[in-house]
Amino acid sequence: MQQVSTTFHFHNMETGSLVSIDNLSKEEILKILRTAAYFEEHPNQKILDGKIVATLFFEPSTRTRLSFETAVQRLGGRIIGFSDPAATSTSKGETLKDTIKMVSNYADLIVMRHYLEGAAQYATEVTDIPIINAGDGANQHPSQTLLDLYSLYKTQGTLENLTITMVGDLKYGRTVHSLLMAMRHFNPTFRFVACKELQMPEFYKQFCLDNGIQFTEHEDFNQAVIDTSDIIYMTRVQRERFTDIMEYEKVKDLYSLNNAMLETSRQNLRILHPLPRVNEINRDVDDNPKAYYFQQAKNGLYARQAIICRALGIDLPVK
Ligand code: CP
Fold first, then answer.
1. What is the pTM of this model?
2. Within the chain, what is the greatest distance between any pair of CA atoms?
3. 316: CA distance to ligand 1 center in Å?
4. Which mutation among 55, 150, 236, 275 tests ligand 1's pocket best, with the greatest number of atoms within 8 A of CB?
5. pLDDT tens digits, the chain, 319 residues: what are they?
6. Is any atom of ligand 1 closer than 6 Å to the C-beta of 61?
7. Which of 71, 98, 207, 249 has the most Cβ atoms closer than 10 angstroms to its Cβ?
8. Which 3 state secondary structure label does DSSP give 164?
9. Are β-strands 78-82 and 52-57 bridged in parallel, bridged antiparallel, or unpaired?
10. What is the architecture, at CATH level 2, of domain 6-140+300-314?
11. Which run of H or of E encompasses 297?
């Protein structure tokens, strides 16, 4: 996967915003994955010297913010930003447009998580510096998808022809929406396991039909589904997207994976989860070699180093 020489340089940059995984061609995706592999070998380099990256998190995050910030620090750049919008002038009524314009005066790149779908796209329309979407409502989470693809490649040795079972909140889960779209390049077969209230939205099912992607839908997370999967992608029910908490209470614990359920699963099966988890993966799965969610989160560092370099137009010694 990895082909390296020893130089890197800055070229005349266009903005390299990443708003939706759909912004990337198959070749661009594969190049980012090769670059992630390069950074996994060489995580500490001084290639962002003089660069300032702003991380603007209007919604809570542990992995995405800290791995982006670690990525910048390991590449020698500097960070500004916030993780608590209540401590910014947003709380005085400043608009998102004005916030983005202000931060653009200070930083070379903005990484933003926002609760509104379309917020990242909107940000690209009011600034000339690149925007990386770190999650916009229930819409997209493209940097998560790139680390997911890197995890698929590392565990399966290929991205092609995989059977991927997505379980849980397929309605509001932006990670499954982005992953589904990215996989159109790689001939996947999907199983969508969800209760009626949290089924995969029609838009994404139509996307599968339009792109010749096979899928089946299940309410029952049964043994036959588990035993014929290469990847089980568990998701948390997104409490923050429910307007009626009683509706959330009704569906929050419907799907839970435990160790006994994995006994007859494929050797190559790996369990992924974007995290955080609540009750959807029992703690007894954590020591099973098929559990991959903590390594998956670690892969986020390398994928995000690659995404930042692309955004800033930095050529790396990766073909
Ligand atoms: N996977 C993910 O987006 O995690 P955080 O919400 O902790 O960033």
1. 0.93
2. 57
3. 27
4. 275
5. 544 333 344 333 344 999 999 989 999 999 999 999 999 999 999 999 999 999 999 999 999 999 999 999 999 999 999 999 999 999 999 999 999 999 999 999 999 999 999 999 999 999 999 999 999 998 999 999 999 999 999 999 999 999 999 999 999 999 999 999 999 999 999 999 999 999 999 999 999 999 999 999 999 999 999 999 999 999 999 888 888 888 888 888 889 999 999 999 999 999 999 999 999 999 999 999 999 999 999 999 999 999 999 999 998 888 8
6. yes
7. 71
8. strand
9. parallel
10. 3-Layer(aba) Sandwich (3.40)
11. helix 293-311
Q: What type of residue sits at position 133?
A: N
Is the Cβ atom of 272 under 6 angstroms away from ligand 1?
A: no
Q: Which atom of ligand 1 is nearest to the CA of 297?
A: 1
What are the residue boundaries of the structural domains of the chain, listed by start? 6-140+300-314, 142-297
Domain 142-297: CATH architecture, name and number where available = 3-Layer(aba) Sandwich (3.40)
Q: Are strands 214-218 and 131-136 parallel, antiparallel or unpaired?
A: unpaired
Atom of ligand 1 nearest to the CA of 66: 8
Distance of CA 307 from the midpoint of ligand 1 (Å) = 16
Give the chain's length: 319
